[in-house]
Amino acid sequence: MTTTISDGTTTLTPQLQIGYVVSRRSRNVVHRILNSQAPAVSLRPGALRSGRHSLLFTDEATALAAVAMLASDRELTLEDTERPDVVNMTFVVPSGGDVQLELDSVTRRNWVVQFDFEETD
Length: 121
Hints:
This protein has two helices and ten strands, in the order E-E-E-E-E-E-H-E-H-E-E-E. By secondary structure, it is mainly β. The chain has one domain. The strands form two sheets. Strands 1, 2, 3, 6, 7, 8, 9 and 10 form an eight-stranded antiparallel beta sheet that branches. A two-stranded antiparallel sheet has the order 4-5. Strand 4 (about 30) and strand 5 form a beta hairpin. The chain is elongated, with a radius of gyration of 18 Å. It starts with a strand and ends with a strand. The model has no long low-confidence stretch (mean pLDDT about 95).
């Protein structure tokens, strides 16, 4: 399995994808009508994916490069060869979203980069 994250110029390859939480917000509108038990409903397609992702890097330099890339003002591409239909996307870290860097407390060598994302395409 290979996971990559790219800004169109630089591509980084983490050792492992260790966390992926995704949701899609419904955009349907339900209108409650006075004196009626049945609401009026306006159906709309769901929003694109948003969530939180965690990647494991085995060296500090690549983890720091990932943090810089994720904190940039560019759209990024995430690709995974094992789960392309689930993971692959173009995304940004949204305003108010976090990019976190954590030293793995067990190995004291590996780095975990966690980030919020919002799909853009």
